[in-house]
């Protein structure tokens, strides 16, 4: 009975995580596509998504301090409900015909600002939850990452189907419904993390000093920030623009995101099976080169076959590298710095995405989508070369046991 009770936090959190991730993945295609349908501008769609990601980055940057001050449960529930209410407001605006891009961007940013602290509040305690349930931390992160990509597999297709049948307002309303369901489940299932290790308020200089001394984490954060920026630009700006000009954008983008979800699910499962045995020194260059190859397929053509292959390969790369990365960020810092390190690292990893999306949105007015994709493919090759130089030679294999 004790073991069953100890495993309930994992079960409850994973169920809630699935619904919340479905809402986020559906919003990624529904919001951007609905705005682009109304305005015909890739820049407007990029601006809306960049505002949401930018707010996520800012909130994540201060997540450690927010969790330390208000506690895990309060922050997690506040983030879930603020996000749900934001989605409801956006749905109401679309239903009323007042979906101005600036207004949607402001409301989306407000809803995203506590997403980072809410995620950090829960994931900071994953090592303790994994230890209580007697499971490997990497396995828990692999399941969590699998849910992300399973949502990416299902949610875009469902979102496109709803938009095709009932219009963009119905797709936005579906996002609101999923967000409300996720917040409700979290409220019912969130365990009493107050009894577990939580963040303590720490001087910023202490955190920065630790990051500067840990060469592995520092290199991972910088390189993955650039990679996430390029990948987000493909998914949220370049592909919607290219496919929109061809006339079958929603279906093509849904196929790419669905295959990205399949690849991510397979990659995350592979990471759990392979148990983090590849050192980051070699893992990152392989991942970046595979992302370059996946982008090259899109440069050659945006046919259904190339979209499927590009999405599958890029998703597999992200899925395979994410669980070892999350485990390293959860294990390497000391407990009293863990929330702050995760918060600042997560914020830095996503910090470049809004800049890249707006920048490539501006370039899309002057360059063809194929040219932008070529630039992105070259960027991944450069990152692969940088990883060989920047990641320490003794690049650490991910530990398999939960932190003590």
Structure explained in plain terms:
This protein has 404 residues and is mainly alpha-helical. It has a single domain, classed as MFS general substrate transporter like domains (Growth Hormone, Chain: A, Up-down Bundle). 84% of the residues lie in helices and 0% in strands. It contains 16 helices and no strands. It has helices spanning 2-39, 42-61, 63-70, 72-96, 101-112, 115-123, 126-133, 137-166, 168-189, 204-213, 215-246, 249-274, 280-300, 304-331, 335-363, 369-390. It starts with a helix and ends in a 14-residue tail after the last helix.
Topology:
Layout: H1 2-39, H2 42-61, H3 63-70, H4 72-96, H5 101-112, H6 115-123, H7 126-133, H8 137-166, H9 168-189, H10 204-213, H11 215-246, H12 249-274, H13 280-300, H14 304-331, H15 335-363, H16 369-390
């Amino acid at each position: 009975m004790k073991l069953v009770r100890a495993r309930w936090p994992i079960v409850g959190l994973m169920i809630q995580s699935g619904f919340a991730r479905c809402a986020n993945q559906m919003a990624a295609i529904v919001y951007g596509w609905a705005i682009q349908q109304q305005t015909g501008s890739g820049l407007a769609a990029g601006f809306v998504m960049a505002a949401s990601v930018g707010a996520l980055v800012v909130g994540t940057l201060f997540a450690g301090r927010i969790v330390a001050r208000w506690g895990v449960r309060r922050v997690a529930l506040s983030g879930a409900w603020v996000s749900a209410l934001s989605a409801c407001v956006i749905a109401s605006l679309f239903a009323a015909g007042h979906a101005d891009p600036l207004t949607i961007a402001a409301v989306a940013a407000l809803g995203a600002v506590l997403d980072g602290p809410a995620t950090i509040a829960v994931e900071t305690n994953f090592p303790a939850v994994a230890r209580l349930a007697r499971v490997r931390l990497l396995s828990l992160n692999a399941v969590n990452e699998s849910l992300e990509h399973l949502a990416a597999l299902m949610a875009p297709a469902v979102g496109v189907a709803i938009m095709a049948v009932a219009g963009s307002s119905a797709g936005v309303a579906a996002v609101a419904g999923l967000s409300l369901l996720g917040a409700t489940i979290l409220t019912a299932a969130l365990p009493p993390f107050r009894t577990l290790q939580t963040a303590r308020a720490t001087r910023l200089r202490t955190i920065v000093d630790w990051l500067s001394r840990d060469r592995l984490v520092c290199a991972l954060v910088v390189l993955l920030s650039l990679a996430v920026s390029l990948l987000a630009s493909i998914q949220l700006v370049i592909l919607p623009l290219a496919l929109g000009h061809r006339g079958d954008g929603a279906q093509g983008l849904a196929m790419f995101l669905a295959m990205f979800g399949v690849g991510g699910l397979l990659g995350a499962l592979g990471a759990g099976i392979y148990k983090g045995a590849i050192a980051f020194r070699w893992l990152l260059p392989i991942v970046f080169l595979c992302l370059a190859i996946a982008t090259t397929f899109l440069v050659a053509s945006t046919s259904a076959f190339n979209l499927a292959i590009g999405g599958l390969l890029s998703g597999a790369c992200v899925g395979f590298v994410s669980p070892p990365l999350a485990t390293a960020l959860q294990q390497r810092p000391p407990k009293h710095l863990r929330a702050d390190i995760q918060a600042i690292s997560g914020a830095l990893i996503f910090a470049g995405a809004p800049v890249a999306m707006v920048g490539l949105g501006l370039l899309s007015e002057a360059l063809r989508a194929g040219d932008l994709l070529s630039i992105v493919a070259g960027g991944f090759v450069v990152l692969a070369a940088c990883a060989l130089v920047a990641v320490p030679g003794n690049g650490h294999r991910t530990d398999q046991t939960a932190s003590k």
